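Intended use. Records like the one below are meant for learning the mapping from a protein sequence to its folded structure. Do not use them to infer anything beyond what is encoded.
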Amino acid sequence: MSESELAGQFFDAAIGLLERVRDEESSNIAAAGAAIADTVEAGGRLFAFGAGHSSLAAQDVVYRAGGLALMNLLAVPGALGVDVMPATLGSALERVDGLAGAVLDSSPARAGDLLVIISLSGRNALPVEMAMNAHALGLKVIGVTSVAYADGTRSRHSSGGFLRDHCDIVLDSKIAIGDAELDVDGIEAPFAPASTVVTSAVMQAMMAAAAERLLERGVEPPLLRSGNVDGGHEWNGRVMAQYADRIFYRH
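Structure written out for the chain above:
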């Protein structure tokens, strides 16, 4: 079977975006890692939130091999993506005013904690209000978004603001408006989105930067090991017991 030209073009586009983010967002990623390390060292808790396909990158840093055990998923029922029927309901929930406040008020998040909010467009009510309400509660907020949307679209929140306007640290994924890397004659719609690849890489780079900062301070990063290697379950059990009051995906 011959190689696919379009598949190769997508890899090239994704690699190019990863290189841009690595080179252009390095200082922001380092700042995000330091903020996470500060929170871990101070006894705070870590949360990640994303709606729709942005939730995939949030889920990717929660309860996984090689990940920080303290990272918890801040879930909004129905907004994780294709976990509801009809799937279009998830998109509708992103535009509902007041939903973010209700979720935060019923969550374990409190002052001194840190929340990573992932939203490609950053224009819907849910991520904007999540950042605004998190700040009001005294949380540090890191936003992972595409600044291109803030520059080229209109906010859907009543304030007129975007996610980037309400974050302590913003990481720009560099994804173009529309989230499709290929546009080919004969195919009407652009296709091959790269936001999940890039955003997940940003999240893991941020976690690596946090582990580096903790190591520099003489603090053992509370990392999980794979349950599929010998001793992995026992290691994870010890970590979870040590940090039980800061881990919420077991309750």
